[in-house]
């Protein structure tokens, strides 16, 4: 499910190509909004959503087990969506940093975004 990763990647590619540029200070402030979203909101929501992967107490009936499986699938989908949002936010931050000429910082932020992809696979 694409929850913004495509848009973020497109903006990042524009920054790398040099078609998206901005003043460094403004770029750093924009990037800070996205990193703050990840650090103060998304990381905790991801941790909280992982508790939905271990639901119990539905009973032994087949219908109850089916209901439990449905909720588990929704919990997994919620975690996947949150991880996608995290990746997109970090890629947006990387795009702004690159557009502002903060290449080393942009590369570090892009590495963080790429590491989120690894989290989704685990």
How is this structure best summarized?
The protein is mainly alpha-helical and 122 residues long. It is built from four helices and no strands.
- Measured as a percent range, the helix fraction is over 70%
Average pLDDT works out at 91
Element order, helices and strands?
Answer: HHHH
Total of domains: 1
Helix-strand category: mainly alpha
- Radius of gyration, taken over Cα atoms and rounded to an integer in Å: 18 Å
- Largest β sheet strand count, sense and barrel closure: none
- What is the oligomer described by this structure? single chain
CA-based shape:
elongated
Q: Based on DSSP secondary structure assignment, what is the total number of beta strands?
A: 0
Report the total helices.
4
Quote the distance from N terminus to C terminus. Answer: 17 Å
Low-confidence stretches: none
Q: What portion of the residues fall into strands of 2 or more residues?
A: under 5%
